[in-house]
Model the fold of this input.
Amino acid sequence: MPELLLRNRPVESVFELIGHNENSLTFALGWCLKEAPDLLRTIAGALGADIPSPDRATVLLQEFGGKHGFTDIEVRDPGKAAWIFEAKIGFAPPSADQLQKYADRLKEHKDQAAAPLLVVIAQSDRRDLWLKQSVPNEISGIPLTVLSWGQVLRCCDEAYANASNHVKASLRQLKAFVQKVLHMQDIESNQVYVVSISNDTWDPVGTTFRAVVAEFSKYFHPVGPGWPKQPPNYIAFRWDGRLQSIHHIDDYVIVSNMQGHFPTAIDEEINPHFLYTLGPPIQPTRPVRTGDIFRAGRVWAALDLLLTCGTISEASQRTKLRQERA
Done:
């Protein structure tokens, strides 16, 4: 079979021919909702909503609603369902003003017998905690729920089992397209996030950040710019000019108050943080110096390179070269 290239890049899905942005993602999802009735069923299940009838339902893309603007996707089943999907390519949910416009549109919908539902689709962490905590449960009386792109892929997998060969092809291409556009993290990835740990204290009794790792087998960092929006599989810690340990992240939660997670933490509201539970330390068998990384710098490196290179900076640079070749 010949290879298809678009601007010298391999095309793995027909959906790539329409672009790599939010519109192209929603168009691809809308097409598959039309082509694969089982996908509509599995998504309804993920939303906890009644399943629209494939024989009566209509999927609308970029529908104009006057003063309420355009919607990404609408699913309508007369007398049963009136859904609006707002899809985002990143982790940030729509603004409150934007959600309010869609809620007003559903409140004014002429089919008042249809159950209204506003759905935000965006990226989330692999357990979908972040997205659920980022939007309210309702807007002006209109139910509001979330659906991560990871959940969309799982719905594709569930729908795939009973689909025809033609529909299976569409679902495979949708999955490949979503994963390529979003660069979704493989849960089997061996990429390690390497951070610098100071000996500063963070609580009233003088617990140090290093003690959080060494004594509690925990680590935390903000959910926000400059930090991973998706928890890594592995994290490594460096201080005193060298790599100290590597840990698998066994579990995590998103917290806005550290009380209850550490015996000395005070009752204080903070910005959302990922709080990791660390697995046993993987100790390097020989010294791995920091190398050319500024004092508080954080880098990514492949696990095997981190354990075999002479410095963390060399491991990070060779990881980037490996990714470029791939």
Notes: The first helix runs from residue 22 to 35. The mean pLDDT is 90. The chain has two domains: 5-182, 191-325. Residues 5-182 form one domain.
